[in-house]
Structure formats: structure tokens, C-alpha cells
Amino acid sequence: MSSSSLQNSVVKDMALAPEGHLKIDWVEAHMPVLNEIRKQFEAEQPFKGLKVTISLHLEAKTAYLAKVVKAGGAEVTTTGSNPLSTQDDVCAALVEDGVTVLAKYNPDPVEYKEFLIRALETKPDLIIDDGGDLVTILHSERPDLLETIRGGAEETTTGIIRLKALEKDGLLKFPMVAVNDAYCKYLFDNRYGTGQSVFDAINRTTNLVVAGKTVVVVGYGWCGKGVAMRAKGLGAKVIVTEVNAIRAVEAHMDGFEVMPMLEAAKHGDFFVTVTGNRDVITGEHYDVMKDGAILSNAGHFDVEVNKPELAARAESVRTVRRNIEEYKLTDGRKIYLLAEGRLVNLGAGDGHPAEIMDMTFALQAMSLKYVNDNYQNLGAQVLNVPLEIDEQVARHKLASLGIQIDRLSQEQIRYLDSWSTHE
Asked: Is 408 left (phi over 0), alpha (psi -120 to 50) or beta?
């Protein structure tokens, strides 16, 4: 533990560190792709002398990413990207590993934002953001801290939406790589990671059976596809609601019922929102829901389930289990909200499996290196993850699984590159 990381950190209790180290050790043993990248970083020191600020869900897998970036020579500061996803034992362990941590579980909104600002006041050269909070603060409240920023990478759909809005308005000041849009991110993390982790959290929190119930999946993007797939696998009847006609047809052809939210609200036992938009479940939906309906959100911000309109219909609100709030409506019906409407898989669970985040955080680490290597020529724009990085991560993953694949011959490559079928 470095004296500076301990002196500059704000965590709940350093005595929790031993349990945090066990969690980090466990995920490290199950993240072979990131382990390969760590070896590369240790040898090449791509971030030597640089400062990196990371705002992600502060649990064990994120902690290991921070250690990998640190192994590349960086001075790393971490903070949370959601008040309920920070794990205090992991934070304490990370401080002992020489990373500055500014985070606690469930801080009040003022303290939460204070941590974000303090993390930026370290004047980082590079950032990793999740949801766009760091970027938003830099551009709206603390432009004085922009000077040192070379660029960074964004983790999730919501953050990319905010980044593209900044870029469209001509306000984005540095390059940001849209890690969420990489093939290895949305095909695996968003689909398999979200699908599994959502129901892991729902099951451990409610201790109720999913089989035979009706699950309403609100949004059929890659996360929605994963949630619907896992619900079906658990024996549920699945209803999908959408605003995108193409995705609605896809959901129908995948075997799911598709209908408007107002109709689906009458049938659902479990609801999972995965849209990245606000107010997808509102008052008119609460008015027709079954007694005992369970609401959860797997989008980044707690705005998809409209909590004020739910509270306005309730004569009482009480916590009936950890991470379950019961809203008793004036007509006697009860509606339950998980994890305060925040990301259920992290607010009420451990997030995506380690093997899935291994690929995503490998993309983050390599994208950060790419930005640092090329920032002077990239311009202030939102960038896709270079295909060679995506493919490198996939090849590392295959190698870790002991899987080999074919390669094109030179003749095949020439054939594919030619307009003539006779070459």
C-alpha cells in the first residue's frame, strides 16, 4: 500500500480489505484475457508517468482493471458510477494495492458527485467513464480541468448517447472510444452478461421462482435480447415492448409476444427495463398492474421506472427485504421495486460474470492504450473500437478456452478482395 493512495482515498473502512482481496483474487483467476494484457502492460509500460481516472461500478472486476492499468505505469484514481454498486471491501483492498479510491456504498447525491469531482481534480491524462458523468462534469462544470485530458473510453450505451450529443453540438473537447459498441462488448457483455446478471440479482433478492411467471422486457436491444433469452430459459413467458419496428419484428421472430407497454403492464409478474431512456414505466402502467408486480431496471440511470409517479399512488412505502421496496397503493395492491430502480444487476447483485467482464475490460484497457498512442491525431470525436483490438480480444479469449479456428489462405484473401470470380 502506497502512502499516497491511503492518504488521498476516501473509503468506508480499511479493515474490510481482507474480504476485498479475496474477491479480487477470485476474479483475477477467471479473467485470462486481462491477465495477458497485464503481462503486456508490465513489459511495455504504456502509461508510465500518466494519471488515469476511472469511474465504473466499483466491485472486484473493476478493481482488477484498475490494477492492470496501474501495472502499465499509471497513477490510478477510481470512483463509482452508481451509488449502490460500490463494494466497500473491494475499495479498501484496492487502496492497499496502491490505487486511490474515492467511493462508498450508497453515498448521498452530494457526496457521490463530490467523489467524481475530486477524482477529476487529480488532473488525469486519460479517463474511463461509465454513463458519461465524468465527461459531463468536465464539459459543463469544470472546464478548467480539461487541459490535461488526452481522451478516454466509455463503457455503456447511456454514456455514448451523451457523448454523441456533445459531439453533434460541436462541444466535445477530446476523443472518446465507444467501447460499448465493440462487437465483443455488445455481443457478449450486453447479451450474455446482462441476461445472466439481471436474473442472478432478481433471484437472490426476491427468492421467488421465475418459471411459470410472465416477464416483461422493456426494450429489445442487445441487453434486452439477453434478458429475454435468460427469462425464457428459466421457464418464463416473455413479453417484449419496443418503439423500434425492426427490433419488434426481431422479438416476434425470436418467439416472444410483442405489445405496447400499457397492454403488457396488465400481464407482467416481473418487469425489466433496458432502454437507456426515461419514463418507460409510468403512472398509467401502475394503474393496471397486477397486485404483487415486481419492477426492476437494468439501464444505467434510475429514470426508466418513474419513481415519483409510483410514490404518488402509494399510501405507504416500506422496505420488506434488502433492496426491495413495497409500494402499497390506495386500492390495496402492492407493487415492489428492486434496488431503488437503479441497475438491478449491480445494485442487488455482483454484476456481470467475471469471464464476460474479462473481455469488456480488456477492450477498455486496449482502447485506453490506443487513445494514448494516437490522441494527437484523433481529434475531438466519438470513435469506434478499432477492429484489430476487437479481434485481438476475441483471439485471446479463444486461446484461453483452448479453441483453435481456421485462417484464410492467401488465395482465399485474394479471391475476396477481387471483383472477378476467376482470379
From this structure: beta
Torsion angle, alpha carbons of 199, 201, 204, 210, to 10: -20
Sheet holding 382-384, edge to edge: 100-102, 75-79, 51-55, 126-129, 151-154, 176-178, 382-384
β-bridge pairing 257-258 and 270-273: unpaired
Q: Is the CB of residue 345 less than 8 Å from the CB of residue 200?
A: yes
Given the C-alpha cell 462534469, which residue does it identify?
A: 137
Neighbouring-strand partners of residue 337 = 295, 325
DSSP 8-state code for residue 294? E
- 3-class SS of residue 151: strand
Distances (CA, A) of 242 to 4, 248, 316: 49, 6, 32
Closest to 98 in 3D by CA, of 119, 79, 115, 77? 77
pLDDT > 60? residue 423: no
C-alpha cell at 207: 427468492
pLDDT in tens, 361-409: 999 999 999 999 999 999 999 999 999 999 999 999 999 999 999 999 9
Q: How far is CA 227 from CA 112, 136, 191, 197, 239, in A?
A: 29, 29, 7, 9, 11
- 222 dihedral zone (left: phi>0; alpha: psi -120 to 50; beta): alpha
Q: In the 8-state DSSP scheme, what is residue 29? A: T
CA 236 to chain centre: 25
Phi and psi dihedrals of 217, rounded to 5? -100, 115
Report d(CA 228, CA 177) in Å as an integer. Answer: 28
How far apart (Å, rounded) are the C-alpha atoms in residues 403 and 143? 48
Residue 161 contacts residue 185 (beta carbons within 8 Å): no
| Cα separation, 373 vs 85, whole angstroms | 32
Distance CA 171, CA 381 (A): 10
- Distance between CA 153 and CA 175 in Å, rounded? 8
Residues 41-50 have a mean pLDDT of 98
Given a contact cutoff of 8 angstroms between Cβ atoms, the answer to whether 204 and 181 are in contact is no
**Per residue in 153-183, pLDDT tens?**
999 888 999 999 999 999 999 999 999 999 9
Quote the cell numbers at residue 159.
Answer: 454514456
The number of beta carbons lying within 10 Å of the beta carbon of residue 231 is 27
Nearest to 222 by CA among 199, 240, 195: 195
Could you tell me if 173 and 135 are in contact, meaning their C-beta atoms sit under 8 angstroms apart? no
Rg (CA), the chain: 22
